[in-house]
Write a structure and sequence with these properties.
26% helix; five-stranded mixed sheet; 234 residues; globular; alpha/beta; 2 domains; Metallo-beta-lactamase, Chain A; 8 helices
Length: 234
């Protein structure tokens, strides 16, 4: 998800839809967690545009996520350590640890890490422009703490929430700490605010089935599928 021109939330393969110029303008990447579909493009982005920039790209994540990325991606075996390339004093990338509940303000936008319940350390994000807010759950299963915090956001306008599996794969959803439509409905019932709800993380081969089941299970909440190139103004 690209916020304005300079902030990415996660950096999966969808980043490939951005032009070279757009990539060069990204100054900040906030990661929800370390799974490949959320980090896959970071090595290529840094390698591609690092030399075009006069400042490093800052990668924000909780310490556990940063440790995984350091140890398993930017480790000189899989990819160069761009936090030290071309020189330690002027690297292409830098790490910025954040904590759950910590707000980072960038040019008037506040990005706050929210709790997520996943198979690896993970967070979601609350993006607040001052006028309105968006909550992106990231990958999560049942997550009571998220709703407790979301219900406190008075200017909440948008909720982007995952539903990775159809109902027949509920056991797999529970095991992998994702949601299916029946679980989504139970989670949305904990939300006490009227917001626009968008569904992400749908499996490509099951999009129609899963959205049909969402309509059957959670239709009263009017969730819609998140589309490529969709624009949110807030």
């Amino acid at each position: 998800m690209l916020a304005d021109h300079d902030i990415l939330i996660d950096a999966g393969t969808g980043v490939g839809d951005l032009s070279l110029t757009e990539l060069s303008l990204v100054d900040h990447i906030f990661l929800t967690h370390s799974h490949l579909d959320h980090i896959a493009s970071i090595p290529f982005v840094v390698d591609t545009v690092g030399g075009m920039r006069d400042q490093p790209i800052t990668v924000y994540a909780i310490p556990a996520t940063l440790e995984i990325i350091r140890n398993h991606i930017f480790n000189w075996s899989v990819w160069p350590d761009f936090s030290k390339v071309p020189t330690p004093d002027k690297p292409f990338m830098r790490y910025q640890p954040i904590q759950l509940g910590q707000a980072t303000t960038i040019r008037g936008r506040r990005v706050t890490a929210l709790p997520a319940n996943h198979t690896v350390p993970a967070v979601g994000y609350h993006v607040d422009t001052g006028n309105a807010s968006l909550v992106f759950t990231g990958d999560t299963g049942v997550n009571d703490e998220l709703w407790r915090l979301a219900n406190r956001i008075e200017n909440l306008k948008y909720l982007i929430i995952e539903t990775a599996f159809c109902n027949r794969e509920k056991e797999l959803a529970i095991l992998s700490k994702h949601l299916c439509p029946s679980m989504l409905a139970e989670e949305l019932a904990k939300l006490e605010r009227s917001v626009d709800i968008y569904i992400t993380h749908l499996k490509p081969g099951e999009i129609e089935l899963t959205m049909q089941e969402i309509e059957e299970c959670a239709g009263q909440f009017s969730p819609r599928m998140l589309q490529n190139n969709q624009v949110f103004e807030f």
